[in-house]
């Protein structure tokens, strides 16, 4: 395990985007993924109000702020605490975005009267268990919640971007997104490691369609059930010596 970690740290230090992030003072190498996706799909524009779900340590928020400028506003939420930014139009709160109460807090902080945003972005990742199918399912769960939030928070014609771990449910998820947006694309930016199963869904022009009952998901923490399931599978595997 220690050997594996040392190998991973060495590899990371050789990584071009890791080095660039350090050099340019971005909080994460993920910043370059948003930059590349935005160059290609024009998701965020100057002056926009942006909501970032799963924003820590804040690399995407830095990039979003560079694009929206002084006139825009960037608000983020994460389970982890995010170091404050030097701009007064960039705010991050600590919390779980799958909980309704936290969405209320976000709405209170949005400076517009209508409490709507132009763009919702989500780079949220579940805790990785290492079991491909399971991580894929949890990622789809988070993406569904992010999509539901997007339909509640976006202005008509607003844009949505979300990271999803690739797997057999991606096509169904894309179809669901297509129900609410005019154009939907899947893309893997150059800064995303080839060996990573992550892929990004880009949805442009929210139609204004209200989130439908049949798509509804319960806004509650399912983390505990998941953790229990992971432990159970791990124990099972140990007993089989897999
Ligand atoms: C890959 S990181 C995001 C990196 C970020 N885009 C950046 O550039 O700095 C994924 C984040 O999603 C957060 N996350 C996962 N589930 C969440 C949830 N339900 N509510 C809030 N944050 C969540 C994790 O805490 C983690 O910090």
What does this molecule look like?
With 242 residues, this protein is α/β, with parallel strands linked by helices. It has one domain: 3-Layer(aba) Sandwich (Rossmann fold), CATH 3.40.50.150. Helix content is 43%, strand content 21%. The chain is built from eight helices and seven strands. It has helices spanning 2-14, 16-23, 31-41, 59-68, 100-109, 132-153, 170-180, 223-240, and strands at residues 49-53, 73-78, 90-94, 117-122, 154-165, 181-187, 198-206. Strands 3-2-1-4-5-7-6 form a seven-stranded mixed β-sheet, sandwiched between helices. Helix 4 (59-68) links the parallel strand 1 and strand 2 (73-78). Helix 3 packs parallel to helix 4 (59-68) and helix 6 runs parallel beside helix 7. The longest helix has 22 residues, at 132-153. S-adenosylmethionine (SAM) is lined by residues 27-28, 30-31, 54-60, 77-80, 96-98, 123-125, 142.
Q: What is the fold's blueprint, element by element?
A:
Elements: H1 2-14, H2 16-23, H3 31-41, E1 49-53, H4 59-68, E2 73-78, E3 90-94, H5 100-109, E4 117-122, H6 132-153, E5 154-165, H7 170-180, E6 181-187, E7 198-206, H8 223-240
Parallel strand pairs: 1-2, 1-4, 2-3, 4-5
Antiparallel strand pairs: 5-7, 6-7
Helix pairs in contact: 3-4, 6-7
Bound molecules: S-adenosylmethionine (SAM).
S-adenosylmethionine is lined by residues 27-28, 30-31, 54-60, 77-80, 96-98, 123-125, 142.
């Amino acid at each position: 395990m220690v050997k594996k970690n040392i190998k991973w740290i060495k590899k990371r230090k050789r990584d071009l985007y890791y080095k660039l992030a350090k050099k340019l003072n971005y909080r994460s190498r993920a910043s370059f993924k948003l930059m590349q996706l935005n160059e290609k799909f024009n998701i965020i524009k100057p002056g926009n109000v942006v909501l970032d779900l799963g924003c820590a340590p804040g690399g995407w928020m830095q990039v979003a702020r560079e694009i929206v400028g002084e006139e825009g506003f960037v608000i983020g939420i994460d389970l982890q605490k995010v170091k404050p930014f030097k701009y007064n139009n960039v705010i991050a709160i600590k919390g779980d975005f799958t909980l309704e109460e936290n969405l209320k807090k976000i709405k209170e902080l949005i400076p517009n009267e209508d409490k709507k945003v132009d763009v919702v972005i989500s780079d949220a990742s579940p805790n990785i268990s290492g079991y491909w199918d399971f991580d894929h399912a949890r990622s789809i769960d988070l993406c569904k919640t992010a999509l539901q939030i997007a339909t509640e928070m976006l202005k008509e014609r607003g844009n949505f971007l979300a990271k999803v771990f690739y797997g057999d449910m991606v096509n169904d998820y894309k179809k669901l997104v297509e129900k609410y947006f005019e154009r939907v694309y899947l893309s893997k930016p150059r800064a995303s490691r080839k060996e990573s199963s992550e892929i990004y869904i880009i949805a442009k022009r929210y139609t204004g369609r209200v989130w439908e009952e049949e798509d509804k998901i319960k806004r509650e923490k399912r983390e505990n059930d998941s953790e229990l399931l992971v432990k159970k599978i791990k124990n099972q595997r140990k007993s089989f010596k897999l």
